[in-house]
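Open question from group meeting: does this chain pack into something compact, or does most of it stay loose? Before anyone orders reagents, we agreed to write out a predicted structure and look at it together. Recording both the input and the output here so the notebook holds the full record.
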Amino acid sequence: MAAWGERLAGVRGVLLDISGVLYDSGEGGGVPIAGSVEAVARLKQSRLKVRFCTNESQKSRGHLVGLLRHLGYDISEGEVTAPAPAACLILRERGLRPHLLVHDGVRSEFAQVDTSNPNCVVIADAGEDFSYQNMNKAFQVLMELENPVLISLGRGRYYKETSGLMLDVGAYTKALEYACGIEAEVVGKPSPEFFKSALQQMGVEAHQAVMIGDDIVGDVGGAQRCGMRALQVRTGKFREGTVLVHGWSL
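C-alpha cells returned:
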C-alpha cells in the first residue's frame, strides 16, 4: 500500500472513463460493473475532485447521464466531458458545416449546428448506420472538398457491451483516412486538447490528476502524454497480456 501511496502522492483530481469502467452498455441500458457505484460515491465523499471523461458518441450527454443515474451513480451532466459537445464548439468556432455520420442517439447534440452545404465530415460511433451507402456518402463529401476536414469523435478500436466486444469508430475513421489520403482530427480521447479541457473544467493541473480507464491507448496513453498519471482497470475491454508502458494495471 505504501508504494501506491507514493505513486498517487499529490493527486487532487480523478478523471473516470465511463464505458468499461463504470458500466457495460447493452440491452436494457446496460449493467453497472461490480463495485463501481460504491467507488464513485466514496470518491465524491473524499477530498478529491471528480470528473467523468468519456468518448461515448452513441448517446447524448443528457441521455447518458440519465442512464447512469438510473443505475445508481451520483453524476450530473455538468461533470461529464464528452466529444459531441466539444466538437460542436469547434465547428462553430471554425465556421464548419458538417456532414454527420453519427448515431441517431447523439444527433440532437448537433441541433444548433448548420449542416447545409457541408464543408467537413464528422464521424462518430454510428453503430448499425455504418453501412456502405453511408460510408461512401461521407467519402464523396470529403473528396469533393478542396481542403477536406474529417473530425472523428474518438479513435477507439473497440469497446465492450454486455453481448461482447463491439467495433468502434476508429476502424471506420481509418477507412476514410486511407481512401481520401487525409488525417482525421480527433475530438475525444486520446486528444491532448480533450484531456486539457477536462482538467481545466476540474480546476487541477495535469500532474495533480489521475485518469482511470480500461483503454491502454485512449485512456492510459493519452493521459500520460498530457503529463497525468493513469491507471488501467481489469474490466471492460481490458485483456490479459496488454503491454503497459509507464502505467499500472489494477
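Observations to bring back to the group:
Residues 179 and 226 are 31 Å apart (CA to CA).
Helices lie at 2-7, 36-45, 61-70, 83-94, 132-143, 169-180, 192-202, 216-225.
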